[in-house]
Amino acid sequence: MKRLYIAYGSNLNVRQMKMRCPKVTILGTAKLKGWELLFKGSKSGSYLTIEKKENGIVPVVIWEVSESDEKALDRYEGYPTFYYKKDIKLQYKEIRTGKRRTINAFAYIMHEERQIGVPSLFYLNTCLDGYDTFYFDKQILLNAYKNSMEMCENEK
């Protein structure tokens, strides 16, 4: 059984996704409206998540994943301890045809009580590679990074 998955962070990196989930297919791209990107985490590191925000926009890729791919993603994302899954209705643009389709797909969202943090440069660059691949506005990702840096500085 195949499911549709919304990627917004390191899973925009096609090479990494194909290694982790060999059966995935890229369906298209979308703008997730009413959400924002945040870097949050734990002592082991900070990673991207999304949270509701009026007027927010997050560029995303829609992947079609097999059951075994989803299990591999669950392990990678630390589901259900670190991230939970949420079904979101959105419209995406097909990569091959350019047609727009409305779908329900799942996203991994970090538990909201996690603290804002600063990611490693390796993780940030992995996400930036995905932004380059899909011609997303990198400023959205860089703004999330800048906001995290500022919030962490203010806590000191």
Shape: globular
Question: Runs with pLDDT <50, length 5+?
Answer: none
Identify the strand order in the major beta sheet.
1-3-2-4-5
Integer average pLDDT = 96
Q: Taking Cα atoms only, what radius of gyration do you get, to the nearest Å?
A: 15 Å
CATH topology type: Hypothetical upf0131 protein ytfp
Which range does the strand content fall in?
A: 35-45%
What is the CATH H-level superfamily? Gamma-glutamyl cyclotransferase-like
Account of the protein in words:
This protein has 156 residues and is α+β, with helices and mostly antiparallel strands. It has a single domain (3-144), classed as Gamma-glutamyl cyclotransferase-like (Hypothetical upf0131 protein ytfp, Roll). It is built from 4 helices and 6 strands. A 5-stranded mixed beta barrel has the order 1-3-2-4-5. Strand 2 (25-42) and strand 3 (45-65) form a beta hairpin. The longest helix is centred in the C-terminal third of the chain and has 18 residues, at 138-155. It is globular and about 50 Å long. The termini are far apart. 33% of the residues are buried. The model has no long low-confidence stretch (mean pLDDT 96).
